[in-house]
Design brief:
With 196 residues, the chain is an alpha+beta fold. It folds into two domains: 113 residues, no CATH class; 71 residues, Nucleic acid-binding proteins (OB fold (Dihydrolipoamide Acetyltransferase, E2P), Beta Barrel), CATH 2.40.50. Helix content is 41%, strand content 19%. It has five helices and five strands; from the N terminus they run ααααβββββα. A five-stranded mixed β-barrel has the order 1-2-3-5-4. Helix 1 runs antiparallel to helix 2 and helix 2 runs antiparallel to helix 3. The radius of gyration is 29 Å and the shape is rod-shaped.
Length: 196
């Protein structure tokens, strides 16, 4: 096997797997089960992750499937062009092919890291509890009946079924506070009653 054959093989493997991955994701084309490789990793694991692998901030592995395929395609393509159409020494062509593959893979990794960006803030149960949250009645609550209220939590506007804590009717637009939350229903008091 010559250097040009090796580069061409790397290009074909990298490009064909990248194309197959793109078609599987964009067009939702899946291979039949008998063509899947029997790896112990999950079906759509998204890269080689585990102990000892290098991860960027947010948990995305530097050595994921897409960056490896990009590296192979660019390494093989540039290496093949240099080995067949230039008079460079094999080691210089190999160095240029490796550098070009690493640059292309780093661009793909940076793009993927922006898409898969994970917030570094920890999720705490307390942040998502709605007891004590202030909101507005959006659908009137009749006496001993159920209505709806709107409130904002962590920058997201939400609505929930609501009942008056004391069973009194509450008109649309009344500012209320949630005293308890049971079975998908928020029990509320008017803001004035809640603060007094």
């Amino acid at each position: 096997m010559t250097w040009s054959d090796f580069y061409l093989l790397c290009f074909i493997v990298g490009f064909s797997l990248s194309l197959l991955s793109f078609l599987g994701g964009a067009a939702h084309i899946h291979l039949p089960a008998r063509f899947h490789l029997p790896f112990p990793v999950g079906h759509h694991a998204g890269g080689m992750v585990g102990r000892g692998t290098t991860h960027a901030r947010g948990g995305l592995s530097w050595f994921n499937t897409m960056t490896i395929m990009t590296f192979l395609a660019w390494f093989g393509g540039i290496g093949y062009l240099l080995s067949t159409h230039s008079r460079l020494v094999a080691l210089v062509a190999l160095g240029i092919a490796i550098i070009s593959g690493l640059i292309a893979a780093s661009f793909v990794f940076k793009f993927m890291a922006r898409i898969v960006k994970v917030s570094e803030a920890q999720m705490l149960d307390w942040d998502y509890r709605i007891e004590g949250t202030v909101g507005t009645i959006s659908s009137p609550i009749r006496q001993d009946g159920t209505g709806e209220m709107i409130f904002e939590q962590r920058g997201v506007r939400k609505s929930v079924g609501a009942r008056s804590e004391d069973g009194k009717p509450l008109p649309n637009g009344t500012e209320v506070a949630i005293t308890r939350y049971e079975n998908g229903i928020a029990y509320v008091k008017t803001w004035e009653d809640f603060t007094s």
